[in-house]
């Protein structure tokens, strides 16, 4: 049981390049999330998904796109990378419904640098 | 606008000290407050609190929630160097999607 995994772990891009970050979970969770973490700012939600084929914007969605073609996978895309997108990106997943408290399970993160 | 504020932003203590980390919040439709520990990589879950006044404990760590005053504290007794980490507070709302609003975190460094 791997939990939440992310690929790649590190990446360096030049301004204007594109890339896709992959998140996979094996816990059969309905909900998945992409966050970015910058120094002194905690975790900020980029986009999220409440099920296969659905996506929604979070707090800081500009410059990013997402897709959830399969329940276990959630992809984050940068079409034209900018230096302001240099950050650590975390994927998370959680159970659906209002039972419980909404705990999210996190992947190990991807460190992205845009030059 | 939903807000989660943690204090202090950082602190340095010596092994064996007791520390108290604070988290205050202003969130509509409150559901739960969660504490996570982050050591370089993924945040790992510590506690989830939904009811006021009920302390949750795990070893040397404990936490309590005050829903009237809108805050929570995380206590760590007899600190060890392995407690050095960023401690994140997050608040969940009673809404579709189970989104969390995170505070900026408290950086704790425990010196030997």
Pick out its properties.
heterodimer; A: 115 residues; mainly beta; seven-stranded mixed sheet; 11 strands; B: mainly beta; six-stranded mixed sheet
* Assembly form of the protein: heterodimer
The biggest beta sheet of chain A is recorded as: 7 strands, mixed
- β-strand percent of chain A reads over 45%
User: What's the number of helices of chain B?
Assistant: 0
pLDDT < 50 runs, ≥5 residues of chain B: none
* Helix-strand category of chain B: mainly beta
Helical residues, percent of chain A: under 10%
Number of helices of chain A: 0
| Mean model confidence by pLDDT of chain B | 94
Structure description:
The complex is a heterodimer of chains A (115) and B (112). Chain A is mainly β and 115 residues long. Helices cover 0% and strands 48% of the residues of chain A. Chain A has strands at residues 4-7, 10-13, 19-25, 31-37, 43-49, 56-57, 65-67, 73-78, 87-94, 105-106, 110-114. In chain A, the strands form 2 sheets. In chain A, strands 2, 4, 5, 6, 9, 10 and 11 form a 7-stranded mixed beta sheet that branches. In chain A, strands 1-3-8-7 form a 4-stranded antiparallel beta sheet, with no helix packed on it. In chain A, strand 4 (31-37) and strand 5 (43-49) form a beta hairpin. Chain B has 112 residues and is mostly beta strands. In chain B, strand 9 and strand 10 (100-102) form a beta hairpin. Chain B is globular and about 45 Å long. Chain B starts with a strand and ends with a strand. Classes of the chains: A mainly beta (115), B mainly beta (112).
